[in-house]
Write a structure and sequence with these properties.
mainly alpha, 4 helices
């Protein structure tokens, strides 16, 4: 699920609302703690510059 979630987010990152929806969905799918940590780091690295508010709110930065 981790890799699929990464691909989906990359494809929808152009749209703020769609990105937020897919990010929330991905967090529900990823249940393993280690994968969740990797996913969080990936999102911060890849998307913080595009959607800082969404990333801050979702991951409580």
């Amino acid at each position: 699920m981790l890799e699929l979630s990464k691909k989906i987010l990359k494809k929808v990152s152009f749209d703020k609302l769609l990105f937020q929806k897919e990010l929330k969905k991905a967090l529900k799918w990823i249940t393993d703690a280690e994968e969740a940590k990797i996913f969080r780091e990936f999102c911060i690295k890849e998307f913080y510059h595009l959607h800082p508010t969404i990333i801050k709110k979702t991951f409580a930065l």
